[in-house]
Design brief:
Elements: E1 7-14, E2 17-23, E3 29-36, E4 61-67, H1 76-88, E5 92-97, H2 102-109, E6 113-124, H3 130-138, E7 145-151, E8 172-179, E9 182-190, E10 198-206, H4 215-230, E11 236-242, H5 246-255, E12 258-269, E13 281-283
Parallel strand pairs: 1-13, 4-5, 10-11
Antiparallel strand pairs: 1-2, 2-3, 3-4, 5-12, 6-11, 6-12, 7-8, 8-9, 9-10
Helix pairs in contact: 3-4
């Protein structure tokens, strides 16, 4: 079958994640791509009433892409990526790719540049010592207090923009430590649809003036505990860490995270670069689960 007989269809968003499928004439999936709004990990992404430091930077949107082995080298990956970049509209894009795979060659061919190695770790709740986590959360940190928020973080420039309403059930949970109203540390976790039992954690991040007080472990332990209370269907938490960030890797190990895999980070502007348009795109229902989950 010619690759031009494979249609690129846009599926309904799931929890802010845009998805595309390359669908063959018989309705099977030849490939899938996803675009997840980036979580800009900066102090401006915290719940009010914290006073926000002035620094900020754009977070790249996360791209995932997979083409079935029997459909590779037919331009399908390029068409999926073109659809992603068209919607990204100039935003920064990033992808975690296993070295030596066809996906890595595809990203390189389309202008993505290496941006370092990342280590992925996984925490399974059945391995969590709940009493110990509770002790970590209850441990006093003089001058600091914990606060948490849950809700829906979509592709907004700052979490503060979507926090006008009270806490509610949503696909994000955030825990922060503050000192007299000033943000000191925070961590965020994003969950998927109810059938997806693995959540993605961002952070912790500790502001320079507040380091050395164990705040990173404190907010991380509180996040593990709070996530389980709000989203009991979640069984696992996955994290990604720069491969040379030994301090954060050690902290994750203390909390029970275990090594999962290592990937190379690739990054590129989101604007189209003359690599070909996606062709006609049709909106359909929810994408089926195919290949690596975006």
């Amino acid at each position: 079958m010619s690759e031009r007989l494979v249609g690129i269809v846009t599926a309904s968003d799931d929890f802010g994640v845009s998805r595309w499928q390359a669908v063959t004439g018989d309705g099977s999936a030849a490939g899938v791509a996803g675009l997840r709004p980036g979580i800009p990990f900066r102090p401006s992404l915290v719940m009010p009433p914290f006073r926000e430091p002035p620094s900020s930077r754009e977070a790249p949107s996360e791209v995932s892409l997979h083409v079935a082995a029997e459909w590779r080298n037919r331009g399908i990956g390029s068409r999926l990526l073109a659809a992603v970049r068209e919607q990204a509209a100039g935003r920064l894009l990033a992808a975690d790719v296993t070295e030596g795979t066809p996906e890595e060659a595809l990203y390189r061919r389309h202008g993505f540049q290496p941006a370092g190695l990342r280590r992925h770790d996984l925490l399974t709740y059945c391995d969590v010592h709940q009493a110990w986590v509770s002790e970590l959360v209850d441990d006093e940190h003089p001058g600091y207090r914990l606060a948490d928020w849950s809700g829906a973080i979509l592709d907004a420039p700052a979490i503060a923009d979507v926090l006008d309403d009270p806490n509610r059930l949503g696909h994000a949970v955030q825990v922060a430590a503050d000192a007299d109203g000033d943000l000191a540390a925070y961590a965020t976790v994003v969950v998927g649809p109810p059938w997806q039992r693995r959540a993605l954690q961002y952070g912790p991040a500790v502001l320079a003036a507040h380091r050395g007080h164990g705040l990173g472990r404190w907010v991380s332990a509180a996040l593990i505990q709070r996530l389980r209370e709000i989203h009991p269907h979640v069984d696992e938490i996955q994290t990604a860490t720069a491969d040379d960030d030994l301090g954060l890797i050690a902290l994750r190990g203390q909390l029970g995270f275990r090594f999962l895999r290592r990937t190379r980070r690739y990054a590129a502007p989101g604007a189209l670069t003359g690599t070909g348009a996606a062709g006609s795109v049709t909106r359909v229902g929810h994408a089926s689960r195919f290949g690596p989950d975006p």
